[in-house]
């Protein structure tokens, strides 16, 4: 049977009389043969949204080449524009469209409302910018965004003397009453719920009168590479930054340089495509893979071999080859025992891969992903087990036992990485129907098209 990404199932995909309306769903295409694909992935969400903020706070205009255009970056552009920055699309040379020219405001102005959607980078990175603006800025977002933790940013700004109205839940919505200046200085926050609390304060810190000497007080600190990315982005614009000890960062006050930057492809968005080679066999190559990067997706080169894949690096390319099939026709995917505290962003896609492995897997260090776009631990347990899987939730992760999976509905919970995880399982399991593939527009609107091409 030929399955295209947009076709509706012509058969009962569940085979177990589950009554589910699949009319609105996306039938995940099955990999009918080994892959041999070369894929280009648009710009990194994390880098694009950092560079947009820094460009809007810089001492002159900056050009961003090959930025990401997706819901998260559009929301960041709208937010910064409403605070006074001028952001124009200009013709670009990249495969995915325009470049961006960012001209900072002479004076940032509040008196606005910012829609954060479901974007962690927007809801965390912009309140400190709003504190530097004159006038009130109200932040709100999607329904689920109101449950994502914001306490590190809210309490952090208060600790720096910023006036802020909220309802005491440590979440959206809230209003920052900007006075056009922030004193800065020393500050302690608990960033165990999200590294973005730290990145948010560091990004605006050069514009604080005394800079920032920030210390994390909580027990765990997730997603450390994302903080290193923030430090590197600041340093590339001439800001003096240091991390004198683990969990402490110092940003000197001073100008943020106006520079032209070329964005790297989003290596975390490359994950489902590389994982497809592990599931289907054959090879997938990602173009423009950076030689050096702060993106956590680079860890895929070490993570995927643990599942049995082989990785080949060439200048500007990374290729993943799937494992040899076992004699009994098994996919040859090995079980893993991984601490993903640095790479929580990759956990949903890796959990989907682990659900197709021949051996059990344990993923730990990811309790904080309960606070991502959805409660990702609960969502992965519900959706994989809904297809016949055997996954249980641990305090800070997942235990995934091998089990034969069958087709059925897969809920994305408006979470792009849940949607792509359903697509991964659907490569091997006919009849997986993702309810909201459009949620991939959060960071990769081209996902259904690229996935279709991968399998063509
Ligand atoms: O700063 C960033 O760009 C991000 C930091 C991480 O957040 P958490 O620390 O909340 O996991 C990551 O998961 C998210 O996708 C992007
Ligand atoms: C956690 C994620 O996003 P956000 O930037 O909204 O936190 C993610 O992309 O996996």
From TrEMBL:
Q: Give the location in the cell.
A: Cytoplasm
Q: Name one GO molecular function term.
A: 3-phosphoshikimate 1-carboxyvinyltransferase activity
Q: What is its EC number?
A: 2.5.1.19
- Keywords in alphabetical order, please: Amino-acid biosynthesis, Aromatic amino acid biosynthesis, Cytoplasm, Transferase
Provide the Enolpyruvate transferase domain boundaries: 34-449
Pathways involved:
Metabolic intermediate biosynthesis; chorismate biosynthesis; chorismate from D-erythrose 4-phosphate and phosphoenolpyruvate: step 6/7
**GO BP term, pick one:** aromatic amino acid family biosynthetic process
Alphabetical list of InterPro entries matching this protein = Enolpyruvate_Tfrase_dom, Enolpyruvate_Tfrase_sf, EPSP_synthase, EPSP_synthase_CS, RNA3'P_cycl/enolpyr_Trfase_a/b
Q: Does the keyword Electron transport apply?
A: no
CDD domains xref list: EPSP_synthase (cd01556)
Pfam families associated with the record: EPSP_synthase (PF00275)
What PROSITE patterns does this protein map onto?
A: EPSP_SYNTHASE_1, EPSP_SYNTHASE_2
Has UniProt tagged this entry with the keyword Amino-acid biosynthesis?
Answer: yes
The residues annotated as the active site are 345 (proton acceptor)
Q: Which reaction does it catalyse?
A: 3-phosphoshikimate + phosphoenolpyruvate = 5-O-(1-carboxyvinyl)-3-phosphoshikimate + phosphate
Give me the residues that bind 3-phosphoshikimate, please: 45-46, 50, 194-196, 223, 345, 372
**What does the UniProt record say this protein does?**
Catalyzes the transfer of the enolpyruvyl moiety of phosphoenolpyruvate (PEP) to the 5-hydroxyl of shikimate-3-phosphate (S3P) to produce enolpyruvyl shikimate-3-phosphate and inorganic phosphate.
Q: Which family does it belong to?
A: Belongs to the EPSP synthase family.
Q: What is this protein called?
A: 3-phosphoshikimate 1-carboxyvinyltransferase
Origin species:
Agromyces protaetiae
Name of encoding gene: aroA
């Amino acid at each position: 049977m030929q399955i295209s990404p947009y076709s509706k199932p012509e058969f009962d995909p569940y085979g177990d009389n589950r009554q589910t309306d699949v009319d609105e769903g996306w039938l995940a295409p099955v990999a009918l043969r080994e892959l041999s694909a070369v894929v280009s992935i648009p710009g990194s969400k994390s880098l694009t949204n950092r560079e947009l903020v820094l460009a809007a706070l810089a001492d002159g205009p900056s050009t961003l080449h090959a930025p990401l255009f997706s819901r998260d970056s559009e929301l960041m552009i709208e937010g910064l524009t409403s605070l006074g920055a001028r952001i124009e699309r200009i013709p670009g040379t990249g495969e995915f469209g325009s470049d961006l020219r960012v001209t900072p405001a002479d004076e940032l102005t509040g008196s606005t409302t910012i829609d954060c959607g479901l974007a962690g980078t927007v809801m965390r990175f912009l309140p400190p910018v709003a504190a530097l603006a004159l006038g009130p800025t109200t932040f709100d977002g999607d329904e689920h965004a109101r449950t994502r933790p914001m306490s590190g940013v809210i309490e952090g700004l208060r600790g720096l003397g910023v006036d802020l109205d909220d309802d005491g839940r440590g979440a959206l919505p809230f209003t920052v009453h900007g006075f056009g200046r922030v004193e800065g200085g020393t500050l302690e926050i608990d960033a165990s719920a999200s590294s973005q609390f730290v990145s948010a304060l560091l990004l605006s810190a050069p514009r604080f009168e005394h800079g920032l000497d920030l210390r994390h007080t909580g027990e765990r600190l997730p997603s450390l590479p994302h903080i290193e990315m923030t430090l590197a982005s600041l340093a590339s614009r001439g800001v003096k930054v240091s991390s004198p000890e683990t969990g402490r960062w110092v940003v000197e006050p001073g100008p943020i340089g106006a520079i032209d930057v070329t964005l790297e492809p989003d290596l975390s968005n490359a994950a489902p495509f590389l994982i497809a080679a592990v599931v289907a066999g054959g090879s997938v190559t990602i173009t423009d893979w950076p030689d050096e990067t702060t993106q956590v997706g680079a860890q895929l080169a070490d993570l995927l071999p643990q599942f049995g894949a082989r990785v080949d690096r060439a200048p500007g390319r990374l290729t993943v080859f799937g494992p040899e099939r076992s004699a009994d026709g098994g996919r040859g995917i090995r079980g893993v025992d991984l601490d993903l505290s640095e790479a929580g962003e990759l956990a949903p896609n890796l959990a989907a891969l682990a659900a197709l492995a021949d051996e059990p897997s344990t993923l730990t260090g990811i309790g904080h992903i309960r606070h991502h776009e959805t409660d990702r631990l609960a969502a992965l347990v519900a959706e994989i087990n809904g297809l016949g899987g055997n996954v249980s939730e641990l305090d800070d992760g997942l235990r995934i036992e091998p089990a034969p999976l069958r087709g059925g509905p897969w809920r994305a919970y408006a979470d792009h990485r849940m949607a792509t995880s359903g697509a991964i399982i659907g490569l091997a399991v006919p009849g997986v129907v993702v309810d909201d593939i459009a949620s991939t527009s959060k960071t990769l609107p081209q996902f259904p098209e690229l996935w279709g091409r991968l399998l063509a």
